[in-house]
Amino acid sequence: MNEFNLPKQYNWQKGSTPIVKKYVADLYQTGTSAPVVTELFNDTGLYFEYEYVSPGVYSVTASENIFTGPTGQKVQVAISNNTYVDDVASPDGFSILAVPFFFNVIFIVTTDLSVAANGILGNNVQNTIEITFYS
């Protein structure tokens, strides 16, 4: 009798090739500078560039067209600690959103719950961006 010793496959693998790839980085920003990025993990084969656009708006440009079109339907962008409300009766705090803008660009929009504002990324809490690709 022959025994087959097949490697276990998980729902995120095709054969031995992972079908989920991730980019994870910590973000920090002050004034009108581009976010300072500390890359924590990247198995995507892509690189990402961050720029200051306008008060409270920053662009993330990927080295390939991944955020819209057929590929973009398989991409998820999350930013940790993206909402902080200090006082419910008189709201004070911040909000951070990631919005697809172009084939290879997303905008990160930060507000102080009233207007777009600088200095929110990494100010009160650690903000981590995670971009996940599913193939």
Task: Please give a handful of descriptors for the protein shown.
single chain; 135 residues; mainly beta; 5-stranded antiparallel β-sheet
Could you give the topology of this structure?
Blueprint: E1 13-14, E2 17-18, E3 20-28, E4 36-42, E5 48-54, E6 57-62, H1 69-72, E7 75-79, E8 83-85, E9 93-102, E10 105-111, E11 127-134
Describe this structure in words.
The chain has 135 residues and is mainly beta. It has one helix and eleven strands. The strands form three sheets. The protein has a five-stranded antiparallel sheet, with no helix packed on it. β5 (48-54) and β6 (57-62) form a beta hairpin. The longest helix has 4 residues, at 69-72.
SS summary, helix count: 1
Could you say how many structural domains there are in total? 1
Mean pLDDT: 77
Question: Would you report the number of β strands?
Answer: 11
What series of H and E elements makes up the topology? Answer: EEEEEEHEEEEE
The major β-sheet equals: 5 strands, antiparallel
Shape: elongated
End-to-end Cα distance, whole Å, is: 37 Å
What class, by secondary structure content?
Answer: mainly beta
Strand content of the residues, in percent?
A: over 45%
Helix fraction bin:
under 10%
